[in-house]
Design a protein that fits this description.
With 292 residues, the protein is of the alpha/beta class. It contains eleven helices and twelve strands.
């Protein structure tokens, strides 16, 4: 059972979230809460309620029996979405594909929400192209454990192939006239990527033995490699490294690149908070760590 919180506003991207949620939910067990955040001096309440009613009717018509509720709440949009999303399992928002620098500096809602959310956030781009391809997950040694677990669960639930992508490149020492590295360095980094990919494949195989899983280690910048791999994917899953939208922009976040240039929905998964006993998702993530 998955409880989705879906942000609805008057943008094209927001209505793409409605289309995506219709495809994604299981009406027998899931629930959907449609949410509009009304900023101070924002649009009239009646208009917000009309939009929510239209979205709710559209979802109910396509997903008979699905539990759907709607709500208009107040406050700063990003902060309110992060707060309210914690009541559910997954937050779904639309991604307006504006210029990356403008988005970071101006603090666009999607970037701010992704940076601070404690639940996975699915960002559906305004140019979303529906596809029946695999669930693609970016693998790395910093932020991938929770993302790998979430992606494996999602692929198993949707009866899709899971494709693991491990991007790698050789850190080069910059000389006055060139970037220099040794062939031996390249071989070491390639081998490390292969080892990490094989460990991830074993972890998924142990956690989801019936799942069809493939993996590929590709030389190149992670942002470019995962973006290319996302073509034809039904969903792309990556871990979150940054806690601010500006931090993601400066350091070249993979999630940022996918949100601004991709056509597939992207799910950004934060590492779970450590607790004494842990939630089920935390325990699955820990099991993946142990297998690796």
């Amino acid at each position: 059972m998955t409880a989705y919180t879906v942000a609805i506003d008057d943008t094209t991207a927001a209505w793409r979230t409605v289309d995506w949620i219709i495809d994604a939910v299981d009406p027998r067990s899931d629930s959907v809460r449609l949410l509009t955040v009304s900023e101070f001096y924002g649009e009239a309440l009646a208009r917000s309620e009309e939009r929510l009613a239209a979205a709710e009717q559209r979802i109910r018509s396509a997903c008979t029996g699905l539990a759907v509720t709607s709500d208009v709440t107040g406050g700063p949009t990003a902060d309110r979405l992060v707060s309210d999303a914690a009541r559910g399992d997954v937050l779904v928002i639309g991604g307006n594909q504006v210029h990356t620098f403008s988005a970071a500096v101006r603090g666009r809602v999607a970037e701010r929400v992704v940076a601070h959310a404690v639940t996975p956030v699915v960002v559906v781009p305004e140019h979303w192209e529906r596809a029946d391809g695999p669930v693609v997950v970016g693998v790395d040694g910093v932020s991938a454990a929770a993302a790998l677990s979430w992606a494996a669960d999602r692929a198993a639930r949707d009866h899709r192939e899971l494709c693991l992508v491990r991007a790698w490149s050789v850190p080069s020492s910059v000389e006055p006239y060139a970037a220099v590295y040794l062939q031996a360095d390249r071989d070491l980094w390639s081998e490390e990527a292969d080892l990490e990919l094989r460990a991830a494949l074993r972890a998924v195989g142990a956690a989801q033995p019936g799942l069809h899983v493939t993996g590929e280690a590709v030389e190149g910048n992670a942002r470019d490699v995962v973006l290319r791999s996302s073509r034809g994917a039904s969903l792309v899953v990556v871990g979150r490294r940054h806690r601010t939208a500006l931090g993601g922009f400066i350091t070249g976040s993979v999630g940022e690149r996918l949100m601004h240039n991709g056509h597939a929905p992207v799910c950004i998964v934060p590492e779970p908070a450590r607790t004494g006993t842990g939630t089920e998702s935390e325990r699955r993530s820990e099991r993946l760590h142990e297998v690796r």
